[in-house]
Specification:
Layout (H helix, E strand, L loop, with lengths): L1 H21 L3 E9 L2 E10 L2 H6 L11 E11 L2 E2 L8 E6 L5 E5 L10 E2 L4 E8 L2 H5 L6 E3 L8
């Protein structure tokens, strides 16, 4: 009978994983204004707690100028990790006005190490690793998007 219980547990785990893979995110466009100019990204919005818990888990790839914006209803000390995340990321921690206040480059896939700015932020933008270096994105640069009240 243990084998039957193991099969049922495996089926439930697989169904849960499939459900995660099928979650959908609203899409939007976001710009980052840097000293070198404005750079546009196609982003997915992680607004609900279940979307934020899933994030980019189980993704094998992400388009070059794509990303995911984790937007919180209130400023808080956001803590991220790379559990079940297969692609290395750059993480931008963002104040309520869209200003980048902290950057962590080239996070390690599958790492359980907590990644945080250590200060309250309104959002975290995840981009492909290397994007921050490629576009010379710095703390103080600004994200432009309606959620920050600085775009239409």
């Amino acid at each position: 009978m243990n084998w039957l219980r193991n099969i049922v547990v495996l089926a439930v785990v697989m169904a849960g994983t499939a459900a995660l893979a099928q979650s959908t995110f609203d899409r939007s466009t976001l710009s980052i204004e840097t000293a070198q100019g404005s750079h546009e990204f196609d982003i997915e919005l992680a607004l609900a707690p279940d979307q934020q818990a899933q994030g980019l888990m189980f993704r094998q790839e992400m388009a070059k100028d794509a990303g995911m914006l984790f937007f919180h209803q209130r400023e808080r000390v956001a803590s991220m990790w790379m559990r079940n995340t297969f692609i290395p990321l750059d993480m931008l921690f963002v104040a309520r006005d869209g200003r980048i206040v902290h950057i962590v480059e080239r996070t390690v896939p599958h790492s359980l190490t907590t990644i945080s700015a250590g200060i309250p932020v309104r959002a975290v933008l995840e981009l492909n690793a290397g994007t921050v270096h490629r576009l010379a994105i710095k703390s103080g640069d600004r994200l432009i998007h309606p959620l920050f009240g600085n775009a239409e």
